[in-house]
């Protein structure tokens, strides 16, 4: 957005010249410098772990089918040995609640560790930066290349990077679609150029999102699009572990020779090399204090430790610490003890309660769903020997990958008996509707009588009871 103003001349008369004033600062491209160190190793370890899980899970086989598959067409979700249906939506709700509470808990304890180490935006940005470095060189080489005029060499490097980025994005989109369509069938369809419209859309959409977010938008996603950066301050307090700069030790900053005595020069330990800014993926200066753009990746701590080691100074000028710890000079053990404060204990208690409830619910979950519906076409009818018969439509859903043989019985009224087949055979994951006829002897008082239908396996492992009513006409 911009506004234009028409300036006046010397005598106050308006001129034809217009000045355009931008209300937003133009984005300055960030060239993150490569860094090594403890936190960089942790970051890459999680890159490998998360991507092995994401790209590997669809290829695992379980009971002759894909181990993790969200089959929307069949309305069945397979997660290893667990088969879930739309009726089990409560488990997805519980998973989302657990994820949110986990984020609150980890943020209250140690800041934006999720953002710095395991967030997909961070992970894919690391991968895309690695590919960029592979084709265009390190930070200085990339900056020089961007400033050079176009040449065959520059075009080849830029084109090679783009091809790698696009292929990786398409592979990511293909893997994402493979969680909803069996990935081996999807691969065969891709090779045969026989993709359906929805598979094509999601492969290209997710691939384009990966390409755009990790290749170009990068820190813009973290700074402007992600809401987490905005409300993190509500979860931080002075005992939250964050990346901090020890200003008491580092200031006043200034350049000096390695052999110089900083005390004699009246300087702190910060040599103002700006490497902490150069390695930051969001381009901030950690020496300015906590900023919402900081994703807590620890890259600045790694590079600062390298500089301190070369200068012969103690490490930890930039480190993970707490505001109270820095102000009071606490040790690491004191800060860890302070982590167990009321808000953390409350988050932990709620989280453990919900996780335990979900675990117990899954453990006690009966892998059979039954719905008994009265046949409204014939509420009641008289059959041989004056007996009264009601017909029901029973909907079975076998929520397991094993065959089930169910014994059907009915109780609740004297003399009530089953007039249809006493057993029902269900194939694995079968949804089936079966008519069930129930009869009572003559003489029963007219009206609606509550009864119970019982469905159980011969071994007694499954025993489901469903209430319904038996109608005797007047």
TrEMBL record:
Superkingdom of this protein's organism: Bacteria
Residues that span the membrane, as ranges: 42-62, 89-110, 163-180, 344-364
GO molecular function annotation: 4 iron, 4 sulfur cluster binding; metal ion binding
UniProt-listed Gene3D superfamilies: Immunoglobulins (2.60.40.10)
Keywords, sorted A to Z: 4Fe-4S, Electron transport, Iron, Iron-sulfur, Membrane, Metal-binding, Transmembrane, Transmembrane helix, Transport
GO CC term, one of those recorded: plasma membrane
Family annotation (Pfam families): Fer4_18, Fer4_5, FixG_C
Name of this protein: Cytochrome c oxidase accessory protein CcoG
Domain 4Fe-4S ferredoxin-type: 261-289
Presence of keyword 4Fe-4S: yes
């Amino acid at each position: 957005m911009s506004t234009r103003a028409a300036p006046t001349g010397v005598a106050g008369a308006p001129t034809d010249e217009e000045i355009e004033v931008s209300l937003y600062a133009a984005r300055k491209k960030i060239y993150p410098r490569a860094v090594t160190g403890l936190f960089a190793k942790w970051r890459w370890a999680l890159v490998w772990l998360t991507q092995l899980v994401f790209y590997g899970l669809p290829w695992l086989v379980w009971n002759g089918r894909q181990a993790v598959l969200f089959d929307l067409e069949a309305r069945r979700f397979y997660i290893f040995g667990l088969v879930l249906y739309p009726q089990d939506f409560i488990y997805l709700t519980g998973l989302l609640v657990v994820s949110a509470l986990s984020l609150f808990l980890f943020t209250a304890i140690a800041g934006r560790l999720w953002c710095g180490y395991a967030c997909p935006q961070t992970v894919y940005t690391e991968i895309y930066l690695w590919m960029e470095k592979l084709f265009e060189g390190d930070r200085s080489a990339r900056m020089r290349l961007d400033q050079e005029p176009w040449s065959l060499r520059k075009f080849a490097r830029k084109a090679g990077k783009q091809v790698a980025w696009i292929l990786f994005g398409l592979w990511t989109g293909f893997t994402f679609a493979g969680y909803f369509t069996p990935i081996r069938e999807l691969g065969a369809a891709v090779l045969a150029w026989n993709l359906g419209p929805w598979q094509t859309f999601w492969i290209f959409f997710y691939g384009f999102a990966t390409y755009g977010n990790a290749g170009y938008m990068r820190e813009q996603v973290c700074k402007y699009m992600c809401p987490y950066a905005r409300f993190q301050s509500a979860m931080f307090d002075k005992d939250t572990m964050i990346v901090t700069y020890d200003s008491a030790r580092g200031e006043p900053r200034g350049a000096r020779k390695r052999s110089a005595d900083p005390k004699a020069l009246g300087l702190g330990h910060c040599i103002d090399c700006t490497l902490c800014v150069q390695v930051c993926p969001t381009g901030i200066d950690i020496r300015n204090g906590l900023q919402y753009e900081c994703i807590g990746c620890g890259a600045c701590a790694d590079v600062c430790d390298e500089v301190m080691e070369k200068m012969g100074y103690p490490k930890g000028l930039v480190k993970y610490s707490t505001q109270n710890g820095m102000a009071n000079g606490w040790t690491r053990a004191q800060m860890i003890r302070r982590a167990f404060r009321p808000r953390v204990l409350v988050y932990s208690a709620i989280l453990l309660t919900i996780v335990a409830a979900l675990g117990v619910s899954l453990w006690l979950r009966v892998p059979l769903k039954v719905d008994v519906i009265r046949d409204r076409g014939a509420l009641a009818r008289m059959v041989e020997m004056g007996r009264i018969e009601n017909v029901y439509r029973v909907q079975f859903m076998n929520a397991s990958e094993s065959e089930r043989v169910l014994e059907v019985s009915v109780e609740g009224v004297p003399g009530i008996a089953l007039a249809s087949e006493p057993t029902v055979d269900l194939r694995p994951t079968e949804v089936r509707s079966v008519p069930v006829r129930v009869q009572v002897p003559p003489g029963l008082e007219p009206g609606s009588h509550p009864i119970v239908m019982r469905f159980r396996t011969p071994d007694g492992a499954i025993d489901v009871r469903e209430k319904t009513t038996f109608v005797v006409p007047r």
